[in-house]
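Async update (no meeting this week)

Hi team, since we skipped the sync, here's where things stand on the single-chain job. The sequence we agreed to prioritize is pasted below, unchanged from the tracker. I ran it this morning and attached the output directly underneath so nobody has to dig for it. Comments welcome in thread, and please keep replies under the output.
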Amino acid sequence: MTDAQIIALFWARDEDAIRQTDAAYGRKLLVLADRIVHSHEDAEESVSDTYMQTWDTIPPQHPRYFFAYLAKICRNAALGKVEWKSAAKRTAEIVTLTREMEECIPDRAYERKLEGEQIGETLNRFLDSISQESRLIFLRRYWYADSIQEIADRYRISQSKVKTQLHRTRNRLKLFLEKEGIFI
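Output:
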């Protein structure tokens, strides 16, 4: 079944949309989530959350690149799971102190959201400015969390070329961000 057909099922509110999505992309999403959470159970939960959020957002969304849409949702779900697990390790006293401080310090969430959007736009401009090969290698490593070996195998190049390409791209990115006024 094509992506357009699956999206049409979501728009028709046909529950088969989730089964078809799982058949087409379930394995890829599970691998992506597992690379982030390093737990099969948490990865399965992240994929399940992905299907639920996809059901909730299509309609009104009509993604142009369906797998990229799913991968973004899955990646965010997995990252949220990692963040939640690390937060759960805090002691009760620290949580209490944090809540007390929240009453004194203004919420910067909106400001951080705007900064995140600006950085995202800047990253997109950077990715548009580099070669397709560099862009693909960069995204496979830092978006899909592929290993150096997997990238080398995928593009039939040496591991050293992948490492060199990533190093150069990171250096270019740092300079690009500095020119845009973003300092790390």
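Quick observations from my side:
The first helix runs from residue 3 to 11.
The chain has nine helices and no strands.
Reply here if anything looks off.
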